[in-house]
């Protein structure tokens, strides 16, 4: 009964083929095989041929039977002869796409084989090229993300191009951005335009708007952006500064509950509410650190090193540095220097952590000639310990070397103190 039903459904679709077909491509693009319609054998050994489009995907683009049928059932591919898909392949080939490029594109967007290339594709290529993108630019971009070709040129691509071009400045940069982010902007165009205009009216500088477009597009898809803008301005940020954009990312992407939890963590380590707000105003990326990372840095700084937690209000970037690869090695050197009385008492504890690698070595290792050999050995040992721990798959705290103020995610591993075995932060045996 089920076999008859399957057969009748295919008859209704009108796409049953009974003859094998050989595809003909030009000399520049040819497949090493002929297309042959495969068959599905029922339990009663009845042979039922597959739709032509399904066989085409399987034999020419290495689709599995399941994925080819899925594309067919979703009506992504609808053709009974090779004429239309062949014309699509020839179009891409004539525009500089290689055999492997076309395979990748069709795997991602099989619906292209059912499109009419000179009506659906050519106008978009002409638009990209007329606005400064070359074929050498377009080929890798579309191979990576062909979904822009599904968008309407007049209703989506051109209006969005005109909207974004003001902030991304060059036509070519805007085209590249559109192609790479085509799937991100599924939000209605009127909402994107309204939110961008809202930020402009609020006084947010063009450079901040551009950075947010590149790194935090979701902000422009919000239905309550005005609240976040007002919250950030209420904290004392000037909308015309780049810091306003960083603070906006933080406040918009973080719930009030999580914000309050992070404030409470800082207070637990001796900061006041005023300290948190003051440091956030100076370095809004402070609140991008996770609660675990805040506790890790504070625990090391206060419990392991015995240093004043209020020193970190002067060096908020500390919460964005790698604990094993930056903070621990440099703190070990500074601890020795302080113990030997080689460093001025009023010198900033936090500043050496912000130095580049070469500057830190020159100022905090090689400048102490009599102790430089020992300091360099100490520093190298801590760096090797961090690398060995990471390479052996032991728990470690991973974090970007510096805060990227335009991202909300800081990658972290497990708590070293609670997760590692046998050694504490300074590598001493417990």
UniProtKB/TrEMBL annotation:
SMART domains found in the cross-reference section: Mterf
Gene3D superfamilies: Transcription termination factor 3, mitochondrial
Coiled-coil annotated spans: none
One Pfam family this sequence matches: mTERF
GO-annotated biological processes: chloroplast organization; DNA-templated transcription termination
InterPro entries (alphabetical): MTERF, MTERF_sf
Keywords: Transcription, Transcription regulation, Transcription termination, Transit peptide
Any Gene Ontology CC annotation: chloroplast
Protein family: Belongs to the mTERF family.
Full protein name: mTERF protein
Lineage of the organism: Eukaryota, Viridiplantae, Streptophyta, Embryophyta, Tracheophyta
Gene behind the chain: 25488215
């Amino acid at each position: 009964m089920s076999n008859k039903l399957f057969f009748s459904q295919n008859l209704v679709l009108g796409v049953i083929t009974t003859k094998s077909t050989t595809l003909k491509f030009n000399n520049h693009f040819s497949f090493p095989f002929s297309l042959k319609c495969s068959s599905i054998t029922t339990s009663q050994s009845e042979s039922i041929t597959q739709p032509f489009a399904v066989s085409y995907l399987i034999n020419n683009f290495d689709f599995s039977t399941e994925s080819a049928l899925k594309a067919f059932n979703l009506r992504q591919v609808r053709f009974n002869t090779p004429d239309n898909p062949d014309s699509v392949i020839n179009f891409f080939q004539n525009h500089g796409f290689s055999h492997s490029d076309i395979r990748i594109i069709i795997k991602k967007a099989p619906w292209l084989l059912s499109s009419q290339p000179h009506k659906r594709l050519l106008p978009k290529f002409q638009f990209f090229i007329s606005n400064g993108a070359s074929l050498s630019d377009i080929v890798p971009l579309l191979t990576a993300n062909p979904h822009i070709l599904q968008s309407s040129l007049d209703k989506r691509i051109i209006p969005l191009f005109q909207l974004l071009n003001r902030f991304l400045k060059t036509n070519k940069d805007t085209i590249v951005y559109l192609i790479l982010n085509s799937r991100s902007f599924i939000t209605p165009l009127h909402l994107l335009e309204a939110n961008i205009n809202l930020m402009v009216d609020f006084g947010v500088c063009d450079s901040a708007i551009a950075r947010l477009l590149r790194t935090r597009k979701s902000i422009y898809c919000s239905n309550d952006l005005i609240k976040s803008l007002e919250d950030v301005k209420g904290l004392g940020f000037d909308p015309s500064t780049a810091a306003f954009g960083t603070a906006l990312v933080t406040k918009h992407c973080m719930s009030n509950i999580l914000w309050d939890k992070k404030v409470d963590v800082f207070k637990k380590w001796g900061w006041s509410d005023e300290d948190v707000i003051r440091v956030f105003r100076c370095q809004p990326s402070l609140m991008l650190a996770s609660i675990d990372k805040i506790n890790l840095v504070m625990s090391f700084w206060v419990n392991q090193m015995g240093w004043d937690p209020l020193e970190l209000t002067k060096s908020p970037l500390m919460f964005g540095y790698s604990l094993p690869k930056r903070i621990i090695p440099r703190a070990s050197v500074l601890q020795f220097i302080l113990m030997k009385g080689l460093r001025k008492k009023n010198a900033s504890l936090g500043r050496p952590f912000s130095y580049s690698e070469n500057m830190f070595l020159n100022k905090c290792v090689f400048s102490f000639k009599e102790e430089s050999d020992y300091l360099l050995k100490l520093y190298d040992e801590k760096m090797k310990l961090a690398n060995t721990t990471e390479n052996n798959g032991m728990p470690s705290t991973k974090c970007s070397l510096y805060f990227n103020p335009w991202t909300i995610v800081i990658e972290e591993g497990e708590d070293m103190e609670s997760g590692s075995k046998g050694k504490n932060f300074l590598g001493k045996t417990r």
